[in-house]
Design a protein that fits this description.
- The chain has 3 helices and no strands.
- Helix 1 packs antiparallel against helix 2 and helix 2 runs antiparallel to helix 3.
- The protein is mainly alpha-helical.
- The protein has one domain: Helix Hairpins (Orthogonal Bundle), CATH 1.10.287.
- About 65% of the residues lie in helices and about 0% in strands.
Length: about 120
């Protein structure tokens, strides 16, 4: 209109944006672990904490922050954490399923019977 072109301004996503998202996921997971009384809710909180940490590992391994290598250190650590989180989730779900079969609940307040 009137010979003027309007070009939209799109801000680039920087490393700080990834760090903020990772920190938010970490805090949400920590709050979830602290407030839930259900074993599955606590497991979801743990997974959120691990995913927030993974995003931060990848952001810190970014080639924009480092020049000495390809920046794969953060990605390799994140891959290792993902594998460990999958194993942890499988074991924790098996424990929760066994606890549910014995007690008909997954409320962690009933887990005091498991003390030795």
């Amino acid at each position: 209109m009137f010979g003027l072109e309007i070009t939209p301004v799109i801000a680039a996503i920087t490393v700080s944006h990834y760090l903020i998202v990772g920190a938010i996921l970490f805090v949400i997971g920590a709050v979830c672990m602290a407030t839930k009384r259900n074993a599955l809710g606590i497991l979801m909180g743990i997974e959120l904490v691990l995913n927030g940490a993974n995003i931060n590992f990848i952001a810190f391994g970014s080639p924009y922050l480092r020049d000495d290598n390809l920046g794969l250190d953060g990605q390799l650590i994140s891959l290792f954490v993902i594998v460990l989180a999958a194993a942890e989730a499988a074991v924790a779900l098996a424990i929760a399923l066994n606890f549910y079969n014995n007690h008909n609940t997954i409320d962690i307040d009933r887990a005091d019977e498991l003390k030795g």
